Amino acid sequence: MGAYILKRLISAVPVVLGITVIVFVIMSLIPGDPATAILGSYATPENVAKLNRDLGLDRSLPEQYFIWIGNMATGEFGRSYSLNRPVLDEVMERFGATLILAGTALVLCSVLGIVAGVISAARQYGLADKAITFAVLIGISIPSFFLGMMMILLFAVDLRWFPVSGMYLPYGGGDLQDLLWHLAMPAAALAVVATGVVARLSRSAMLEVLRLDFIRTARAKGVGERRVIWGHALRAAMVSIIPVIGVQAGFVLSGAVYIEIVFQWHGIGEMLVNAILKRDILLVQGGVVVVATCYVLFNLVVDVCQSLLDPRVKA
Amino acid sequence: MLLAPMTRRGLGMLTLVAAVLSLGAPAAAQTPPGVLIVGQIAEPKSMDPQAVTAVNDFRILMNVYDGLVRYADGTLEVEPALATDWTISEDGTVYTFTLREGVTFHDGTPLTAEAVKFNFDRMLDESHPYHDTGPFPLAFFFSSVETVEAVDEGTVRFTLSGPYAPFLSNLAYPTGLIVSPEAVKAHGSDFGRNPVGTGPFRFVEWEANSRVVVERYEDHWDGAPRLEAVVFRPITDANTRTAEMLAGGIDLMVEVPPNALSEFEGDRYTIHEQAGPHLWFLILNAKEGPFADRRVRQAANYAINKKEIVENVLEGTAEVAAGPTPPAFAWAYNEALEPYPHDLEKARALLAEAGAEGAELTFYVTEGGSGMLDPVPMGTAIQADLNAAGFDVTIETFEWNAFLEQVNAGLEGKADMAEMAWMTNDPDTLPFLALRTGAWPDKGGFNSGYYSNPKVDELLEAARAETDQARRAELYREMQTIVQEDAPWVFVANWKQNAVTATSVEGFSLQPSFFLLLKDVAKP
User: Pfam families per the record (chain B) (predicted)?
Assistant: First the structure.
């Protein structure tokens, strides 16, 4: 297992490096440079040239790229020109916020989705199944940013149960309760679609397992129905559910971009959008490297979990 | 029924969690008295006034720092601030300022002539030990400054390379705000996150992406402000900003989207509007193609229904523009100018006279951008109006940075017209940088439509060298008449900045400079 993990980690390095090259090339191909973005109406060729010199952007592109990679290898991600602070500080702070949001949404969608899927499968074509299937269809069909805006109008503007946006109160607050209170709406809005997907696939995975011989054997031996479903069947179905959750982690991370903008949750998605608009190459690069690394690691964790659950999957 | 108890329990748990979260939560709607929460449009870049270019950042900085001079309340005319008095030499090249006595920075150090000198040397002298705390993108506002001398403790003298009338007005701009030299020395490149000035509010904390907090500075030379503290919150999404205002999460919101203004009618809110030094116009390619003929350019001005655009597309958040200078520069504005009326007959007649009926035009439109208002719907309305008059207009749309790169390089060989908007602090800036022959793109200016009129060039050069304001105003008024007649642009709109405050907020008004001044605001 240790050797397998190490091998996977090493193979992740060229993936992340490849991503940095792609991002760097794309960022230098799109028209408009940082100096023009900063100077706006005042971007005369003379002012642009001077500012580029001050920003260190007058070097050749390969030169810029290798300087950046070399610095990054020593943990130096550079300084964001648009925020005037170290890239790493900004990325870590933002990524932490995204992890709180996406992590909560992932837990919500896994738990609710699996529970709904199992109930649905256990009572196939029953009232509960029909109700859940209907709810899931609606959940999958609503764009999360629209749902988010509707939730703001109802729960924040009209009812005033939850705050509209942000992570903490602007004045006072700052404790865990404050955070949870701000987290509730965005995490729920983000989890809805993923919950639907997980519920659907859990249902079909469970239906497949429930038809197998070992379930009939368990029932014949007199094992209680609750134990058959939540113990025997679910454990077997988890083998096909876990990869789905792995994929959902990716969706939740990318879906977080919209939710972060609607709820002004200052996570890495919102940061990347702004950084691209301002042509802040170092910030885009730093953010992408962290997200990509995290995604690769998460896939690894999913694979390891799966091999632990299912002896047939060879590590 | 095996599963039922479990689901019921699960539901019960969820309800409980929701109840705890909502009931136990602090009351969000009420922001505390004496503390003003301002909804900003973005995270500030820096709080170093010499390092920033965005109006969004200026809104904070104008409350933390003072300049040598400032704009008098409700005008764009300069009055004393940190300097009590100044003299200008006969030839307009030497400015001598007397500093206000007893002013201290928030860190306790005194304001001296040496401190003022430090500020300008840091920005302008590449060999200055603290020049590397930049870059200073707007340093060219002071590029005419040759030397700054501390004559004595309370007197500072600027020597310019030549007469340059906008100098005083540039000193009132955020780039001219005075920072504490000791704080720059202590924090170096991080000064922008540890700002120290002399303004009515002192910096408390900047929590990245979440808030900037400033509090009352009791020893301010112009009297302490009425508020205890101000919190600036970045909320980049306009819909979310509107929802925050409606939910009571913020007390003051700037840049309200036109379609959201109606939400704030009624007595729970006050809507503020103020026309500013802004012009939204179309650059016409006067070098080649149909617009090389003045009659065709005038026809475009007659054909476009500016009133309709201002009232319907912009929902009353702008006024119809008459010429190249916004009326907010009251002292230099030519009141006699009337906007080109919407007159299709006249437009068609002019087109026929010039033999340009059915002329094909390429029109560059941006998707967004600073001061561009609602560029895509505006572009579409303009296209429809021009087509109705007998043009054949094709739109090409660009993202803002790509758009600037295309347009600033000049329209020759690419397009016949392009959208543009400018916000300036002096009537000199826009025409000098965008209408002179010497400002064609290949000469490093912004005259992307290649307009050229020797008389206009002469008037602009003379106005820049004239230190007598009344005489200077005369020159600008004459320039406006000629430019309106020559129609190198289609003059479309002057934006009215807007803001909404909760009724609990007192004493707030918007400034024509578009700065946000909070010293006299109260929230009991």
Answer: SBP_bac_5
Average pLDDT of every residue of chain B: 90
A306 located within any domain: yes
ipTM of this complex: 0.76
Distance CA B481, CA B87 (A): 32
Report which secondary-structure segment, H or E, holds B79: strand B78-80
Task: Please indicate, yes or no, whether residues A160 and A298 belong to a single structural domain of this protein.
Answer: yes
Residues of A in Cβ contact (< 8 Å) with B247:
156-157, 160, 163-164
pLDDT at site B26:
44
Question: Could you give the CA distance from residue A29 to residue A315 in angstroms, rounded to a whole number?
Answer: 41
Q: Taking CB atoms and an 8 Å limit, are A156 and B247 in contact across chains? A: yes
Which residue from B37, B193, B404 is facing A171, i.e. has the nearest CB?
A: B37
Q: Are B284 and B391 in contact (CB under 8 A)?
A: no
User: pLDDT of B115-144, one tens digit each?
Assistant: 999 999 999 998 999 998 878 888 888 999
> Which chain A residue lies closest to B407 (C-alpha atoms)?
A41
Distance CA A217, CA A222 (A): 9
Question: Same structural domain for residues A101 and A67?
Answer: no
- The domain in which residue A12 lies consists of 2-73
Q: B20 pLDDT band (50/70/90 cuts)?
A: very low
Would you place residue A239 in the very low, low, confident or very high pLDDT band (cuts 50, 70, 90)? confident
Nearest to A164 among B53, B210, B240 (CB): B240
A46 belongs to a structural domain: yes
Q: Which tens digit of pLDDT belongs to each residue from A126-139?
A: 898 999 999 999 88
Dist. CA A83–CA B301, nearest whole Å: 41
Long-range contacts of B468-476 (CB under 8 A, 24+ apart): B469/B331, B472/B165, B472/B332, B473/B331, B473/B332, B476/B325, B476/B329, B476/B332, B476/B333, B476/B334, B476/B427
Shortest CA distance from A90: residue in chain B: B208
- Is residue A172 in a domain? yes
Name the pTM for this structure.
0.81
Average pLDDT over residues B485-496: 96
- Identify the CATH number of the domain in which residue A183 sits: 1.10.3720.10
What is the reported pLDDT for B85? 94
Does A233 lie in the same domain as A117?
A: yes
Q: Are residues A55 and A117 in the same domain?
A: no
What CA–CA distance (Å, rounded) separates B522 from B519?
8
The more confidently predicted of residues B238 and B323 is: B323
* Residue in A122, A156, A271 closest to B243 by CB: A156
Does the pLDDT of residue B7 top 80, yes or no?
no
Sign of CA dihedral A94, A284, B41, B513: positive
- Residue contact B235–A264, C-beta within 8 A: yes
Taking residues A262-282, what's their average pLDDT? 86
Residues A21 and A100 in one domain: no
Q: A232 with A310, same domain?
A: yes
| Alpha carbon of A174: minimum distance to chain B alpha carbons (Å) | 11
CB within 8 Å: A30 and B408: no
The domains found in chain B, sorted by start residue, are: 34-251 (3.40.190.10), 278-495 (3.10.105.10)
The count of domains in chain A is 2
Interface test with A, best of B23, B47, B397, B401 (most A CBs within 10 A): B401
Taking the C-alpha atoms of residue B268 and residue B226, their distance in angstroms, rounded to an integer, is 22
Kindly state the percentage of chain A with pLDDT values over 90: 28
CB-based contact A32 B22, cutoff 8 Å: no
Q: Do A205 and A304 lie in a common domain? A: yes
Same domain, A96 and A20: no
Chain A residues touching residue B15 (CB < 8 angstroms): none
pLDDT value of position B9: 46
Confidence of residue B24 (pLDDT cuts 50, 70, 90): very low
| pLDDT of B29 strictly over 70 | no
Q: Are A88 and A290 in contact (CB under 8 A)?
A: no
For A:191-220, CB contacts with B below 8 A are: none
Residue A270 near chain B (CB below 8 Å): yes
Provide φ and ψ at B234, rounded to 5°. -80, 120
* pLDDT, position A109: 93
CB pair distance less than 8 Å for A32 and B400 = yes
Residue A111 lies in a domain: yes
- Partner-chain contact B22 A161, CB within 8 Å: yes
